[in-house]
Amino acid sequence: MNRDEKIRVLVIHEDAIVNAGLVALLRGCADIEVNLDEATGDGVDVILADYRQGVARVRPADGHGPAPVARMLVVTQLEREWELRTAMTAGVHGYLLQSCDAEQLLTAVRTLGRGLRYISPELSRCVADSFSRVGLTGRESDVLQLLAEGCCNKSIARQLGIGVGTVKTHVKGLFDKLGATARTHAVVLATRRGLVGEARRDAAMAA
């Protein structure tokens, strides 16, 4: 994009208050032009949307078709790793948390306007850390699910038909791979990454 050209932006966030705030912030920038034609979004460089609309716009219903011309920036409260991965895999170009400040918002829009990608620094560190860790084995996943249900080592051993010592080895492996320091910590981290469900996490916390 030519430096003298403005970045044309369309804001379609489903939360009316968030939408109005984004428009107000962007309209105050000399290098950004807010487009109010929400019908098609034609002729814009960057679209700001909530998670649901953002993913839907970059992922055609039939799974085929050309990629959208405009670059998609999702602005959301969803901060778990699997949600970010889902969005980026679908074709989203930027992922920003609603808790960001104005400077980070403008940086994200300008970065996408230059044809690059942008991820909130908080989430970027999380994803980079997860990529540096080895994936869980099938047995480790089984142990993790039972940990998340609040099971003790003896119960896990009985349900999986393995020794307590083997369970302890798997739990240690989980701690190393998740970067956890305790059983509850491991479940919380696994929940954030979408490896276990919220209901199971709650059960473990209550145990």
Structure write-up:
The protein is α/β, with parallel strands linked by helices and 207 residues long. The protein has ten helices and six strands; from the N terminus they run βαββαβαβαβαααααα. The chain has helices spanning 16-27, 51-58, 81-90, 102-113, 121-131, 138-148, 153-160, 164-178, 183-192, 198-206; strands at residues 7-11, 32-35, 46-49, 71-76, 94-97, 118-119. Strands 2-1-3-4-5-6 form a six-stranded parallel sheet, with helices on both faces. Strand 1 (7-11), helix 1 and strand 2 (32-35) form a beta-alpha-beta unit. The N and C termini lie far apart (56 Å). The model is unreliable at 199-207 (pLDDT under 50).
Which SSEs are present, and which pair or pack?
Layout: E1 7-11, H1 16-27, E2 32-35, E3 46-49, H2 51-58, E4 71-76, H3 81-90, E5 94-97, H4 102-113, E6 118-119, H5 121-131, H6 138-148, H7 153-160, H8 164-178, H9 183-192, H10 198-206
Parallel strand pairs: 1-2, 1-3, 3-4, 4-5, 5-6
Helix pairs in contact: 6-8, 7-8, 8-9, 9-10
List keywords for this structure.
51% helix, 207 residues, alpha/beta, 10 helices, 6-stranded parallel sheet, disordered C terminus
Q: What is the radius of gyration?
A: 21 Å
Q: How many strands in all? A: 6
Q: How many distinct helices? A: 10
N-to-C CA distance: 56 Å
* Neighbour order of strands in the largest sheet: 2-1-3-4-5-6
> What general outline do the C-alpha atoms trace?
elongated
Helix-strand pattern, N to C?
A: EHEEHEHEHEHHHHHH
Amount of helix: 40-55%
Major sheet size, sense and barrel closure: 6 strands, parallel
Q: What is the structural class? A: alpha/beta
Uncertain stretches of 5 or more adjacent residues: 199-207
Per DSSP, what share of the residues sits in E-state strands of 2 or more residues? 5-15%
Mean pLDDT: 83
